Amino acid sequence: MAIRMPRIIHAKQILRRSSSATSKALSTAVDVPKGYLAIYVGESVKKRFVVPISYLNQPSFQDLLSQAEEEFGFDHPMGGLTIPCREDIFIDLTSRLGGL
């Protein structure tokens, strides 16, 4: 099994840059438990999800982060990490990751 360190480092860079954000992001950070992160998901209407940071190690989740980088760069319109995929796809993915 190959270790994919560059992708993990890249994911951490995305999160670090997106979390340096606005007071809105800081005010919502209070209700995110330690070991989790808030993510906004959706194509037009964004819904907020709180997921374990352990998902960052999963290749399928890293692919979503790459899509977010391609669409938004590091300027996320919601003030937090935004992933441009359909909500049902995100829920399906995270339900599969939750069983790992």
Describe the protein's topology.
Elements: H1 5-19, H2 23-29, E1 36-41, E2 47-52, H3 59-72, E3 81-83, H4 87-98
Parallel strand pairs: 1-3
Antiparallel strand pairs: 1-2
Helix pairs in contact: 1-3
Family: Belongs to the ARG7 family.
Pfam family, one: Auxin_inducible
Protein name: Auxin-responsive protein
Describe the structure.
- It comes from Actinidia chinensis var. chinensis.
- Belongs to the ARG7 family.
- The chain has about 100 residues and is α+β, with helices and mostly antiparallel strands.
- It has a domain at about 35-95.
- Helix content is about 50%, strand content about 15%.
- It has 4 helices and 3 strands; from the N terminus they run ααββαβα.
- It has a 3-stranded mixed beta sheet with strand order 2-1-3.
- Helix 1 crosses helix 3 (about 60-70).
- The chain is globular and about 30 Å long.
What's this model, at a glance?
The chain is α+β, with helices and mostly antiparallel strands and 100 residues long. It has helices at residues 5-19, 23-29, 59-72, 87-98, and strands spanning 36-41, 47-52, 81-83. It has a three-stranded mixed beta sheet with strand order 2-1-3.
- Gyration radius (Cα, Å) is 13 Å
List SSEs in N-to-C order.
Answer: HHEEHEH
Bin the strand percentage: 15-25%
Quote the distance from N terminus to C terminus: 16 Å
Instruction: Compute the number of strand runs.
Output: 3
The proportion of residues forming helix, as a percent range, comes to 40-55%
Approximate shape: globular
What kind of assembly state do the chains in view correspond to? single chain
Low-confidence stretches: 18-23
Major sheet, described briefly? 3 strands, mixed
Q: On the 0-100 scale, what is the average pLDDT?
A: 75
Strand order of the largest sheet: 2-1-3
Determine the number of helices (DSSP H or I, runs of at least 4 residues). Answer: 4
- Given helix and strand content, the structural type is alpha+beta
